[in-house]
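Async update (no meeting this week)

Hi team, since we skipped the sync, here's where things stand on the single-chain job. The sequence we agreed to prioritize is pasted below, unchanged from the tracker. I ran it this morning and attached the output directly underneath so nobody has to dig for it. Comments welcome in thread, and please keep replies under the output.
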Amino acid sequence: MSPPPHSFSVSCSTSLSFTILCLVLISPIARDVTARRIRTRILQSGSGSPLVLIHGFLSNHHTFDDVVPSLARSFQTVTIDLPGTGESEKPPPSRFDYSIEAFAEVVTDVIAALQIGRCHVVGHGLGAAIALALASEHPEFVDHLILVSPEIYSGPPPPLTRIMRMPLAGRFLFKQVLGRSLFHSLYLKHQYAPGHIVQSERIDSYYGPFIEPAARESAFAVLRAQLDMRPSIARLSRIKSRTLVLWGRADRRLIAEYAPRLVRQLQLAQLEYIETGHTPHEEKPDLFVASLERFILGERS
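Output:
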């Protein structure tokens, strides 16, 4: 017997409602949180166990745009614009010192304000150093720790970076010389594998907020704060969380030998390489999501 004529429409209606519900849950909701007395922009989406994502230097929450929709199907994702970046407040260094420790306390305040409790933490580049500080000082908040292209060890900086770190020359370069063209060129060279094609709109999403003088002053303060990474290295032996280190084989910013060295210094760490440059989540988002889900959810299956 054939099904009644209305059965298909009911099925479609149910399916449509479910699809709309999924889209609502996955679509990011932006809100401001006061963290260390700084207005901090965060975006939440999805449901499930909380997953906090921390971006790196000179970027913002847009660096995770290609992976959040997929991750939001399994997790409640929280992406943060760190102070001085994106849509967050950009206080002068006299109000906020832009150190790794200060950023970690901001993330701690965000977690407390959202009342999400224990969560998985993803940090990229400088964000990985911030995630390490969070896991070291507030282990009660960190379940799984994912360090993506972590900038922990101080390798020899490129000549331009050395100039940028000089008090007078660096400040002048950041405020007067680093325009859109140079910003794009440096970002392409240092963030992505050779030959990787990236839409200019993505880099513009990082450069746009950087136009503000306050953002440039903040970025310079961050760069200066990274001169001594010894406190970050000292934290490694204190990390108790299960840790995944994701490293791009074609990373032009980090020395390849640092990867196994980092894993040896962590207690519960494993290393996974991805055929990318410095930003695996942008260059190979599907592989990145698969790695995170395998690491976090695979242990529970």
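Quick observations from my side:
Confidence is low (pLDDT under 50) at residues 1-14, 16-24.
Residues 17 and 25 are 12 Å apart (CA to CA).
Reply here if anything looks off.
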